[in-house]
């Protein structure tokens, strides 16, 4: 199969979807002629025209609000918020309109929109270009939240999201855009070209929403991660020699609770890893679910490894991220508990 970066896989997903369904439209800030700040939409306007791939004003509320109206009348908008940090002006539209439309209309209207957002750090973008706000979406009934970790899944999940009849938040880890992240390092690793690209099939395929993937089988401890942190968890397991089972959640809502429960009941231990701030992060929900469903199988408290409870420190970006050393310590402490 062809090898593609995540950027290329995401672009291919939109290309395939637009080619199969003329109701799919793509728009956002600079996504038309310019091809997006990360070039995820490069070439789509030239191929499909300005009525199907076009630029929007710097107005996130307007972008999402327009998409909701389009969706209610039969289109399938796939919009880009340039950075996840910019989505706050649109949060009212997402939570009060997009998430509620099916229920408020008693099923007369649905809201098949996808809102793509680059998320997380890794580009030294500082605290207004590096946030991980996934917990703000998983708290809202009616929204689905997706976080791919590799190019193959990014394409399949995005096509599935575009074809889904309800609103999907699609969070794209920036550190994975140009190649799989080398989780063995607590600092940037260059060049990206030294890393193997992901195998991504041509044409149409989907990865189902709500199904996790076991990236590493193990029997000593379960590690729950998503996005960039999947690679960090894999590196930590390798460096410590802990027989960890690493689960890539892929979608946070709907969540594949069956896979999580089966793994934790087998291992008796669980470590949760995410890049976002610890307090009220999605890891808190995962920890609660594991405790509720696996209490009598647990041999140690559920551990969480996450970002600091502080505004994003630009100059200390790579200390803020959970790295293999921090995750490794959590694995060893959980085994010793």
Please supply descriptive tags for the structure shown above:
single chain; 2 domains; seven-stranded mixed β-sheet; five-stranded mixed β-sheet; Rossmann fold; 337 residues; globular
Give structural notes.
This protein folds into two domains: 3-199, Thiamin diphosphate (ThDP)-binding fold, Pyr/PP domains (Rossmann fold), CATH 3.40.50.970; 213-336, 3-Layer(aba) Sandwich (Rossmann fold). It contains twelve helices and 14 strands. It has helices spanning 6-20, 44-48, 60-72, 91-98, 101-104, 134-138, 151-163, 229-240, 257-267, 282-294, 317-320, 324-336; strands at 3-4, 24-28, 53-55, 76-80, 114-119, 144-146, 168-173, 198-199, 213-216, 221-225, 244-248, 251-253, 270-277, 303-307. A seven-stranded mixed sheet has the order 3-2-4-5-7-6-12, with helices on both faces. A five-stranded mixed sheet has the order 9-11-10-13-14, with helices on both faces. The longest helix is centred in the N-terminal third of the chain and has 15 residues, at 6-20. The model is unreliable at 189-196 (pLDDT under 50).
Quick recap of the structure?
This protein has 337 residues and is of the alpha/beta class.
Structural class, by secondary structure, is: alpha/beta
CATH superfamily of the largest domain: Thiamin diphosphate (ThDP)-binding fold, Pyr/PP domains
Largest β-sheet summary: 7 strands, mixed
In CATH terms, what is the architecture of the largest domain? 3-Layer(aba) Sandwich
Number of helices: 12
Listing every helix as H and every strand as E from the N terminus to the C terminus, the arrangement reads EHEHEHEHHEHEHEEEEHEEHEHEHH
| Percent range of helical residues | 25-40%
At the first level of CATH, the class of the largest domain is: Alpha Beta
The strand order across the widest sheet is: 3-2-4-5-7-6-12
Q: Which percent range describes the beta-strand content?
A: 15-25%
> Could you give the distance between the termini?
45 Å
Radius of gyration: 19 Å
Mean pLDDT: 93
Poorly predicted runs are: 189-196
CATH topology of the largest domain: Rossmann fold
Q: How many domains?
A: 2
How many DSSP-defined strands? 14
The shape is globular
């Amino acid at each position: 199969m062809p090898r593609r970066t995540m950027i290329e896989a995401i672009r291919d997903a939109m290309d395939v979807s637009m080619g199969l369904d003329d109701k799919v439209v793509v728009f956002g800030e600079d996504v038309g002629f310019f091809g997006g700040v990360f070039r995820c939409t490069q070439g789509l306007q030239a191929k499909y025209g300005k009525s199907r791939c076009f630029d929007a004003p710097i107005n996130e509320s307007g972008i999402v609000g327009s998409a909701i109206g389009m969706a209610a009348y039969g289109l399938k908008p796939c919009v880009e918020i340039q950075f996840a940090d910019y989505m706050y002006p649109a949060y009212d539209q997402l939570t009060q309109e997009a998430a509620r439309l099916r229920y408020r209309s008693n099923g007369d209207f649905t809201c098949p929109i996808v809102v793509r957002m680059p998320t997380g750090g890794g580009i030294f973008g500082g605290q207004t270009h590096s946030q991980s706000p996934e917990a703000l979406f998983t708290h809202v009934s009616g929204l689905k939240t997706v976080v791919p970790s590799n190019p193959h899944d990014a394409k399949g999940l995005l096509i599935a999201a575009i074809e889904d009849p309800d609103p999907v938040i699609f969070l794209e880890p920036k550190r994975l855009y140009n190649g799989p992240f080398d989780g063995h390092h607590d600092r940037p690793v260059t060049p990206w070209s030294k890393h193997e690209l992901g195998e991504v099939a041509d044409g149409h395929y989907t990865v189902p929403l709500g199904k996790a993937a076991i990236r590493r089988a193990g029997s000593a401890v379960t590690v729950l991660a998503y996005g960039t942190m999947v690679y960090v968890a894999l590196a930590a397991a390798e460096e410590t020699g802990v027989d960890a089972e690493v689960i890539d959640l892929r979608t946070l809502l709907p969540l594949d609770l069956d896979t999580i429960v089966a793994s934790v009941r087998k291992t008796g231990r669980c470590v949760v890893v995410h890049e976002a701030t610890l307090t009220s992060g999605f890891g808190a929900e995962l920890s609660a679910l594991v405790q509720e469903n696996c209490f009598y199988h647990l041999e140690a408290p559920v551990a969480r490894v996450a970002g600091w409870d502080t505004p994003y420190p630009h100059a200390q970006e790579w200390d803020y991220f959970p790295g293999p050393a921090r995750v490794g310590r959590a694995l060893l402490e959980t085994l010793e508990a």
